[in-house]
Amino acid sequence: MTIRTVRPNRVQHFRPRTHCFKKLEAMVVEMQDPNSGVKGSEQKLNVNTIPHVITGKDVIAWITTKMKTTPEEVQAFGTMLVAYGYIYPLQNHKKLVMCNDTSLYRFQTPYFWPTQNWVAEDSDYAIYLAKRNIRKKGMLEPYEQAHYNHLHDWLNHKWDFIVMQATEQYRAGKERKKPDRVVFDCQERAYWIVNRPPPRTHSAMDSGPERLIDPTADEKITFDAYRRMNLFYQQAIMRSKVKSSVSLGALAKYVTTYKNHDPFLAPCLPSNPWQTDNDAYWTYNTRRVDVPTKMQVERWSFSLFELLSDLRGRDDFKIFLKKEFSGENLAFWEAAEELKWGTASSMSSKAETIFKTFLVPGAPRWINIDGRTMGLTVKGLDHPHRYVLEAAQTHVFLLMKKDTFFRYLKSPVYKDIQKKALSPESHSFSPAQLEQNAQNRSLGIHPIILWQQEEEEKAKAAVASTPVDVKAMMSKIDRKK
What we know:
Blueprint: H1 18-31, E1 41-45, E2 48-55, H2 56-67, H3 71-83, E3 87-89, E4 104-107, H4 122-136, H5 142-154, H6 159-174, H7 178-195, H8 223-238, H9 244-258, H10 273-276, H11 280-284, H12 294-300, H13 304-309, H14 311-324, H15 328-341, H16 347-359, H17 371-380, H18 390-409, H19 412-420, H20 431-439, H21 447-465, H22 470-480
Antiparallel strand pairs: 1-2, 2-4, 3-4
Helix pairs in contact: 2-3, 4-5, 4-6, 15-16, 15-18, 17-18
């Protein structure tokens, strides 16, 4: 392992898990106490005798006696010690769990503890893999070989230095006694298993965004801060309030409605692509799939917002509105969305087109909104901006929500799509099949290509929905005659 004398300043001065690590380390130090700690002994591993080896059941028994809690909590705490690298397995390195059996473990040296804040850099990992490649004569694990090849390309400009460092460390290691050399190799390997885990293995060292301020520091509150707090509390007092029973009832209703559609609460069908490397779930749930799934169709009935958020559901809603001869409300809502999220350069032209198509008296697709909203909207179109149609769009949305949406749910169009909807069967992959899926994993469609396809579909839909000028058509026919 490359010894560092200067630790790089990564700006992350305050780490939220440091206090947790200190508690874990205090427990690990107590576990290593010669009198009251976990009893270790010499064990033979292959042909080598390893000192200070502990078993999983001894660790579990010690934690149970110390913490006096449930077996599940004890097992989780022991696994936490292994996952953070305070205890490492001697037999199955890739399985970072604490087994309540005779599996062999050792305490990690404090040099490799997380609180040391050693940054697991690519150069150090490349030196470790090169040294391991020399020792194993090219027989690395598949994931290590993949990392080795990637780092060889990435750090090709200093690969000679990396190989030289690895060779020197390998020679220095050969001068140690055989048991000491095996112990150090196990310690170093355990460190890299924690910080560079194998594929599809969760790393306990993953952290969130960097925290640049000290959350425990006493903040000096200025007069301006007190003034803003006072203004905030005055506004909070004036807000309308709801009884806690009503809000909790609404929350319970929401959870009951969406729990089967939440991948954290219910399994994905046919399988979770992040776990199985099988993209069937994404194929069934593409944005404009021909035949949707039953879960997707069921979600449309939750609210009009869910229906319009799903492009496939919106297309089905358009078919219903076309049969009802009332598609102008949805067309106006889509035009307002396009104005809201479109480019700034096209804002004026889009606003003028929307005004001529939907708002001007006698427009081809005139919408029925109240006079006050119409007046505010027409006045705002003199100086158009992204949210100039917000009031009219909200009014139209509420009209569709109160009337058209419920008629759609009772219509033959929705019932027909319910009958045609697919219900995928759950996948049950074996470990060998999961490995094969990971090897055959391919790149998805590039987002730029998806965006281009959506733009082409929008252009075709706009051409198809353009109102026909009957007078112009008749004049063309007369000219041809």
